[in-house]
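Worked example 3 (structure in, sequence out).
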């Protein structure tokens, strides 16, 4: 008989792992709510007409398509079947697909419900997404996204609050991070000023390698991308941009003075930094011109978060985008959003062993079962303990004491309650601390106090 298995790129999560994951999701949810975001959910599957063409050609290939129900083949002619054109076949045989991210379904949601929504609309969404990607370390075919977006408002106060949310979440996790900030308009301004408006990506990719390969090699790479010497010399103050965020902005104001777009970007960053100074952040915030994620859709601020004590990619990202809902016929709705990388945060918390003990606790006390008489005495006590908020179990049958104790051990249950003839006579129970091995005869109320303490 074949052993059961799960699809490549997917995972099972044990009770211990789920406790940790729930700690992550609950912390993020709590902070989102603190800032006035409200939760929505959308279906796991969307119409392919909603998803196709929104993620570029590569993205379209990574969509999981769902075969229509019923006799699919009856809709195909012999000729179509012998053609063996899989793209054409999927186009006709599949009307639905699994969602690839939470952003496009959110855009669809906003357009469909625009008459019930009050703008600005602040939503958060924590759900799985699916990508038919080649599975590799840290890349899965099914994974969770934790998104928050504000749509229908151009105000930069939104960016300020999203950075505060990031800061608060990582403070609660105890993870030290650096929040990196850039602006698409600054990048456009740089490319414009040096007369290479179509070379934004090449420029940022090269600058990003400064630490690794040094200035000379960066300049060589820029030249190899077809950027002329004059443009490269104009880029030097930007490549070598150092100092505090304020000093970097002063340099940019000089370099970008002839670019209206660039100066607008500098002003936007300045606004965000000034407002954030009014409430001190616990984590580092750094203006980083090499940050160029999502250049195809971000139009203003770009945000990325790096963990400082662990070697891992970005663990949160986001930015400002315009016209999210335009793809569904509702133009001019600007938005800004962030997404926490729950799977990477899970890895970081594991590596740094930062889970609070009570976040992953399970059953607090196990009642040993000696038989029916004892069950009659124990069950009302268990009900009282659960009412007091104590996670309590009774071993389901009168098995050997050793077996019941070993069950408590394996499941890391810290206390075992033993009730035999003597305890019942006295109206008490024997409470055993599984860590120290210490036993104590206590009343039910004393037991509750110990477990709540």
């Amino acid at each position: 008989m074949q052993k059961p298995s799960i699809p490549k790129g997917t995972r099972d999560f044990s009770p211990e792992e789920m406790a940790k994951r729930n700690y992550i999701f609950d912390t993020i949810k709590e902070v989102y709510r603190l800032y006035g975001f409200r939760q929505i959910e959308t279906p796991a599957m969307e119409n392919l007409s909603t998803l196709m063409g929104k993620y570029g050609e590569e993205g379209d290939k990574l969509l999981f398509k769902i075969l229509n129900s019923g006799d699919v083949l009856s809709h195909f002619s012999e000729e179509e079947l012998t053609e063996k054109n899989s793209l054409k076949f999927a186009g006709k045989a599949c009307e639905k697909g699994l969602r690839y991210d939470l952003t496009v379904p959110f855009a669809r949601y906003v357009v469909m419900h625009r008459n019930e929504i009050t703008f600005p609309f602040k939503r958060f969404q924590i759900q799985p997404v699916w990508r038919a990607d080649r599975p590799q370390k840290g890349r899965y075919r099914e994974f969770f996204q934790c998104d928050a977006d504000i749509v229908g408002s151009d105000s930069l106060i939104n960016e300020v609050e999203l950075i505060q949310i990031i800061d608060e979440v990582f403070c609660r996790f105890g993870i030290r991070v650096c929040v990196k900030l850039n602006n698409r308009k600054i990048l456009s301004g740089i490319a414009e000023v040096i007369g290479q408006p179509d070379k934004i990506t090449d420029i940022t990719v090269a600058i990003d390698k400064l630490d690794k390969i040094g200035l000379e090699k960066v300049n060589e790479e820029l030249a190899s991308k077809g950027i002329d010497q004059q443009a490269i010399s104009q880029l030097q103050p930007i490549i070598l941009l150092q100092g505090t965020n304020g000093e970097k902005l002063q340099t940019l104001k000089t370099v970008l003075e002839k670019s209206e777009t660039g100066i607008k970007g500098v002003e936007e960053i300045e606004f965000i930094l000034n407002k954030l100074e009014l409430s001190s952040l616990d984590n580092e915030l750094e203006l980083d011109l090499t940050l160029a994620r999502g250049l195809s859709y971000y139009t203003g601020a770009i945000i990325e978060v790096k963990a400082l004590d662990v070697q891992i990619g970005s663990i949160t990202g986001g930015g400002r985008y315009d016209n999210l809902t335009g793809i569904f016929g509702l133009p001019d709705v600007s938005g800004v959003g962030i997404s926490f990388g729950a799977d990477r945060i899970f890895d970081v918390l594991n590596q740094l062993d930062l889970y609070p003990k009570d976040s992953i606790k399970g059953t607090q006390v196990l009642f040993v079962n000696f038989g029916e008489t004892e069950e009659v005495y124990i069950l009302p006590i268990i009900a009282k303990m659960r009412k007091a908020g104590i996670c309590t179990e009774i071993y389901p049958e009168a098995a050997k004491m050793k077996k019941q104790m070993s069950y408590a051990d394996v499941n890391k249950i810290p206390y075992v309650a033993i009730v035999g003839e003597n305890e019942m006579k006295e109206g008490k129970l024997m409470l055993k601390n599984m860590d120290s091995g210490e036993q104590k005869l206590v009343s039910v109320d004393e037991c509750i106090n110990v477990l709540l303490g």
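Notes: The radius of gyration is 29 Å. The mean pLDDT is 92.
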